[in-house]
Each structure stands twice: as C-alpha cells, then as structure tokens.
Amino acid sequence: MRQTKTGILLANLGTPDAPTSDAVKRYLRQFLSDSRVVDMPRLLWWPILRGVILPLRAPRVAKLYQSIWMEGGSPLMVYSRQQQQALAQRLPQTPVALGMSYGSPSLESAVEQLLAQDVDHIVVLPLYPQYSCSTAAAVWDALARILATRRSIPGISFIRDYADDEDYIRALANSARAAFAAHGEPDLLLLSYHGIPQRYADEGDDYPQRCRDTTRELVSALGIPHDKVMMTFQSRFGREPWLAPYTDETLKMLAKKGVKHIQVMCPGFSADCLETLEEIAVENREIFLAAGGQKYEYIPALNATPDHIDMMVKLTSSVR
Q: Which pLDDT tens digit goes with each residue over 264-276?
C-alpha cells in the first residue's frame, strides 16, 4: 500500500511587512484587488483603488500599525508564527507551513515548502473559524492557481471552517472565564465578528449563520443568560450596507442606555491583529467610555494558547 506523507498548511489573511505607508500600500493593493474581497467590475474599481483609496488610506493605516507593532513584526505575523511553531512541536513527524493570502509568506511559498519535503497530501487549515467567501474561499482560489500548472498535485484536505467545533468552543469559553475571573463578570459580553457586505450574505455566503452558530455554542458552554450576550459586526468598509448591528454604534447605544461594564471578545479572529488590538481594544473602548460606560476590557484572541493548539492538533488530525 502506498505510504502518504501529510503536511499541514496554516493559512491566514496577511499583513504588511513593515508599518510604513509604502508597505501598507503594497499589502492593501494586493488585498483589495482580490475579487473575493471587493467584487466590483475591475474597470470601475481599479481607478478608485489606485487613485483614491490607496493614497489616502495607506498613510493612516500605517500609523495605526505603528501603534501596535511588535518586536517580531505585526501582531498577526508574530502570533501566526507562534501557532505554526507550537503545532509543529506537537506534531514532530508532520511538516507545518504558514502561508498568507496577501503579503508574505505567500501561500505559494508555503505550498512549495511542503512539497520540497516530499509531502503528497496537504491538510489546509484556513484560520477563519467562520467560513466566508471573502476569506476561506480566497484561500481555495489561491491553491487552485498555485497547483494549476503542476503535472502532479498533492491530495488536499480543505477544512472549510470550524465555527461550532467542540474544542474551539471550549477554548473560547475558557478564555472568557479567565477574563471574568480577572476583571469580574461584565454586565454584558459583546461578541464582535468581522463584517462582510450584506449583499454577500444575500447572495449565498453563510457567514452570518456560522457566526450565529459560534455564538449559540459559546453561550451554551458558558451557561450565561442570553440577555447577557450580544453579537455585532465590526470593520466595515465602503458605503454599501454591511452585516448589522455594527459594533461601534452598539457600544455607544449600550453606554447611553446605562450599561456600565462590558467585555468584548472577537471569536472570528484566530490571532490578534490591527482589527482587534487597535479597533476593538483602543478605538471602541474610547467610544464606550465617552458615551458613559465605566469599565471595558478586550478579551484577547486565542493566539498560540495551549487550548488553541490542542484544537488545531485534533482538527487537522481528524481529516487526514
């Protein structure tokens, strides 16, 4: 019987190589040129992207990155590398590579790294707990392009998502309990997921349902009343309607209604990044406190915690 050598590809969105306008511009150009992310006709979109969005947005985003940059690079890169290394330590006989849909290390470089180690079956784990056409499907597209010119391709096991995976939910619940123990149980736990245009959901993307699945299972695992939890969506971009309710507007509303203590968790992010460490932990905290709230904590992403790595070990092993 033919022996198969399996490797694991961890995939995430990506990050600029440096907190500079030029590096951010290169990253955003690649990211926002993907039709899975922005599906406007190219002839309409490219002049807007290159002539308006990149020149105006890159310097501002670079300053935000500067505020959270770590010694080893952007937080997303630092935590993603830690995840890769921790998983590799747990699975010493299995090559583990890290690839980003945009920026470096690229998905192509990760695939090449695995194939160079004679891997003939790749388990692909996009680190997006809830499927979306704008995230997991973009990884699928990239893999197809990478392998399109090869005479021989490896077997592929593609993990579409893990929104209600038992070990993922357990890791989230343990993280929330640790925050409650450290800061006191909040008046309300806000679960903030990255948004997508409402139109994508109307056209068949089941991302909102997968977010609801995670929320339902997490509330059940924590055993807290449903009225103590809210689900919102953050990081909207452009003018068309995105999934609602919006996180920033909800926080302002809650503070004005007299809610004093809030803790915010972002279950859609497998690693802390600009959207969690700056938008949620800093910007939205200021919004809540300015509107009358008194106490606000951000519960970190799972990053490379043991619970998270345990989940990755079991999840990738279950599909080999």
A: 999 999 999 999 9
